[in-house]
Amino acid sequence: MRNSILRNGLFGIFTITAFIASAQNVAVNTSGNNAYTGAILDLSNHNTAGANGLLPPYVSLSNTATQLTPPITGGTSSQLGGLLVYNTSTNLSGPGLYYWYYNSITPANSAWIYIGNGTVGGTGTLNYLARWTPNGTTLGTGVSQDNGTTAAISTVAAAPVATQMLTVVGNATAINAVIGTTAFTGGAAVKGSVANAGASGGFGVEGLISGAGGGQQYSLYGSSTVTAGNGYGVYGQ
User: Fold this and answer.
1) What residues pair up with 223 in beta bridges, in sequence order?
2) Is residue 85 a contact partner of residue 105, using CB atoms and an 8 Å limit?
3) What pLDDT digit, counting tens, does each position of 55-89 carry?
4) How buried is residue 65: exposed, middle or buried, by Cβ count under 10 Å (0-12/13-18/19+)?
5) pLDDT tens digits, residue range 82-121?
6) Dihedral (C-alpha) 159, 111, 95, 130: value to the nearest 10 degrees?
7) Fewer CB within 10 Å, N- or C-terminus of the chain?
8) Rg of the Cα trace of the chain?
9) Could you give the maximum distance between any two Cα atoms of the chain, in Å?
């Protein structure tokens, strides 16, 4: 009796869904079509539109993007590169599709990547502009910040200043904060203008140097290689 029930159950499953296996490929579909030879597992139904999809495993990810285990058990980070799951927790970028990215250059930077709803996800440092580092494979931060109102370029982590559209601050090894060069006739390597007609002072170009070291130091520096006509290293009005 037990064997009869088992046989009937298996027959019912295979009459609903075709499961076709060959030496190298497996197809799961409702049409009975063989797998395309270029796919180990073929769920495409030979590109025929249907009413079924692929439901990935549900997993509750932790709030650490670089943490694979737990919740995943078994296998190493390199072995599981490309692992696809649906996150049910509110951690990371919230519920949605994620895949495990294995960084072969810097394994410690391997992390869950949010696929989600088509938006760009991930983590970073507030206001810092992202850049590809160290070998063009991983997003990191550099020296540029943008708070949505003003910006800063700094090697000493100086934040944007509310009263300055752009703040540039160099460290002890960067002698010049801003340097400009032009070969264009009538062009200015550094140019600024003031439209403020109020009583308070306004500067088209302003520079301040507080270093007391020896050698040449510049608060503003510009050069022009124009040999004819007007050329300005620093121009302000």
Assistant:
1) 181
2) no
3) 889 999 988 888 888 888 888 888 888 899 999 99
4) buried
5) 899 999 998 888 888 999 999 888 888 888 888 865 555 5
6) 30
7) N
8) 31
9) 104
